[in-house]
UniProtKB/TrEMBL annotation:
3-phosphoshikimate binds at K33, S34, R38, S160, S161, Q162, S188, D307, K334. It comes from Duncaniella freteri. The lineage of its organism: Bacteria, Pseudomonadati, Bacteroidota, Bacteroidia, Bacteroidales. The keyword Cytoplasm applies. The gene is aroA. This is 3-phosphoshikimate 1-carboxyvinyltransferase. InterPro entries: Enolpyruvate_Tfrase_dom, Enolpyruvate_Tfrase_sf, EPSP_synthase, RNA3'P_cycl/enolpyr_Trfase_a/b. The keyword Cell division does not apply.
Amino acid sequence: MVSVRHKIQTDNEHPHIPPEEFLETRISLPLSKSMSARALIINALTSGSSPLPKVAECDDTDTMVSALRDDSESLHRTVNVGAAGTTMRFLTAYYACRPGCDITLDGSERMRQRPISVLVDALRTLGADIKYIGEEGYPPLRIRGKKLKGGELSLVSSVSSQYISALLMTAPAMADGLKLTLLGEITSRPYILMTLRMMRDHGVESEFYLNTITIPPSTYRAPSSPREIEGDWSAAAAWYEIEALSAGAVTIDNLVNDSCQGDRCLADIYSKIGVDTDWVGEDGGTDLLANPDADARANIDFSDCPDLAQYVTVTCVMLGIPFNFTGLHTLAIKETDRVAALKNELTKLGIMLDDSIPGTLRWDGRRVRITEMPVFDTYNDHRMAMSLAPIALYIPGIIIRDAEVVTKSYPGFWQDLSSAGFSILEANEEEPSDSEKEGDK
Ligand SMILES: O=C(O)C1=C[C@@H](OP(=O)(O)O)[C@@H](O)[C@H](O)C1
Ligand SMILES: C=C(OP(=O)(O)O)C(=O)O
């Protein structure tokens, strides 16, 4: 639990930012965990020695690194992926097509509630041997690896793109390759394109025409120099939020404009709610420049970029920008039910969000005055902690419980916030009661 303050003092209703307390910082973001996960799986599927780029240093990537490292030592074991959904889904397909392995794949309590049947059904149709150990449709899984037959398959694509990426990366090793027809709305499409692009870097061509992706049987080839893993655009969201709320000077060192990460659309989203991006900023960095619009209203579809929703929601409520967000149907099966978590936590700021239409979140701009210092819960979700922390710019002294959750994707988050001028204090778990305080005297 940490208490987050910033030098900027405001009154809650009418935030003001004294010029002498100007926020100025230069940040180097953690590397993309999505690119890292793909680089690691593709590298493991590439025969011979393949140079591996520098990957992210965070819980989700560490889990994947150790699972794949231990893979050469034992084919029969239990692998626990903790809270890493991408790792869970990618390893399921990886082990299913790895002849000779017999793996029990498990995760955190929450992972056991995150559905995986779309992927398991698909892999079984392609010839895989996978059994549910506990509840049907959810981890843990027992996977006995074998050469998969592959072939033609139709798949519901509105639940998670991770199932699709997992199948695509293992497709070249299938006897007949894979012809995958995506049914329904495709969620998180840019992540699928990232997968295909990184496969192409390793010599595997594919065709994505209308809603069908075709990958012939083929082998991955090591590129002469591997694609560098970029700074994480999803992690940049906290800094766009900080810039929007502080109107300070935030420079980011390692953002790629022509990125293969779909969350690059962050720059476009924030240009509509008050932050411009100057790509050729100070000393080669990217400068974020607040450009507030008093009449802004935000209508945003998050189906291509679900990981940005929490940051943009908190930004809008703090800036008083009414919104209508759509494409949020997958948020219920992430680290927590993110819409429910946002609704709960923002009531602590006197804000009522409306999620009566499934997959949407709306706010009409009204708030009621709060009288208590908010103590925020984080629901084992790194993005709850990171999106709520910037509220300290308006309400110094907020408390964030279980602040260490950020290590899932951004272990240096609190350190980076400190260097930007926030003061992060360890808060006592239990406030002393009045009688205890009396007794101390
Ligand atoms: O493939 C990936 O690297 C990811 C895909 C997205 O998940 P969904 O496809 O389940 O939306 C995203 O939310 C997740 O953080 C990372
Ligand atoms: C949803 C996320 O991760 P995962 O699905 O990999 O657990 C995330 O990082 O926001």
